[in-house]
Specification:
The chain is an all-alpha fold. The protein has five helices and no strands. It holds the Pfam family TctB.
Length: 149
């Protein structure tokens, strides 16, 4: 991508991360006196997003020369992933977290790099079930279940 795009994206993501952290601080703490409450996970994600956006800004400003060649933007890939993300949001409550996340990752990975379907299935499954296990089992949260039945 171009350095101008990276700078703009870095600034936008930094603003989003600041808003994310500020809004997560408004979430009430744990009712049971535990250090880990409902605001812990969003706060950590906001901080990570902020650090990564600062890294992107640092890398884009550190680079001296911007390439003269025009970066090709693949509208078809962007459109497919964007529509899949919208469908993911709408289908999350209907078909549940596990199935909708697995399908979204499967589509997104295949759009980004066609082929290697077996590795795509394995990575999508490991990520989906890993996040589900960490959030539900370790943190005691709940995610949308399969609700068609």
């Amino acid at each position: 991508m171009s350095k101008t795009f990276d700078k703009g994206t870095g600034i936008i993501l930094l603003i989003i991360s600041i808003l994310f952290v500020l809004e997560s601080l408004k979430i009430s703490g744990s009712a049971y006196g535990s250090a880990i409450g409902p605001k812990t996970y969003p706060l950590i994600l906001g901080i990570i997003l902020g650090l990564l956006s600062l890294r992107l800004l640092y890398e884009s400003f550190k680079s001296k020369a911007e390439s003269k060649e025009k970066a090709d933007f693949d509208y078809k890939k962007f459109g497919v992933i964007f529509i899949s993300a919208i469908l993911y949001v709408f289908l999350l409550e209907i078909i549940g977290y596990v199935l909708s996340t697995f399908l979204f990752l499967l589509i997104a990975f295949q759009v980004m790099e066609k082929g290697k379907i077996l590795s795509t299935i394995i990575i999508s499954a490991i990520f989906t079930f890993g996040v589900y296990f960490m959030y539900v089992s370790l943190l005691g949260g709940s995610l949308p279940k399969f609700s068609l039945f």
